[in-house]
Amino acid sequence: MCDALSRNVPKELETILSNCIAHGRRQFVDVVANFPDECRHVLLTLKDVYKNDAIAREQDLSPEDRLRFHQAESGPLMKKLKEWSSQQFEDRLVEPNSGLGEATDYMLKHWEKLTLFLREPEAPLDNNITDRALKRALLHRKHAMFYLIENRISEAHTS
Predict the structure, then answer these.
(1) DSSP conformational letter for 31
(2) Neighbours of 151 (CB within 10 A)
(3) Could you tell me where the beta strands, DSSP code E, fall in 1-152?
(4) Handedness of CA 102, 30, 33, 40 (dihedral sign)
């Protein structure tokens, strides 16, 4: 699972690649102030999909049962979302270069990988756990780098 950046795709291993639906969602969150009604539709749909995933976890469903549950409950929601997204462009309701157009285009371009959880038993919706862990490591590295710079500056001023 990764975002849609091409440099995140392993070259040497055969993989089933999934994209993080939270990255697609975030694009709508970023433009919600400019397109409140449209973004609300997308965000509420994804909220229901996440709610379904939470129900599957609470019920401790097996991967296969989780898949069937998502196919029955989240599948129709995602189908309607894809139809709505396509309709936005077909009916020229959204400017392709606008923030909403770019967010919608991202979802449509990566639809198969964003919806892998509807076809593969153990496919997660997102990689938020991994993102959080990586952010901690990156923040530590960033803080350590500035610590070294600040120490060198302090040493230069005291010499």
Answers:
(1) T
(2) 10
(3) none
(4) positive
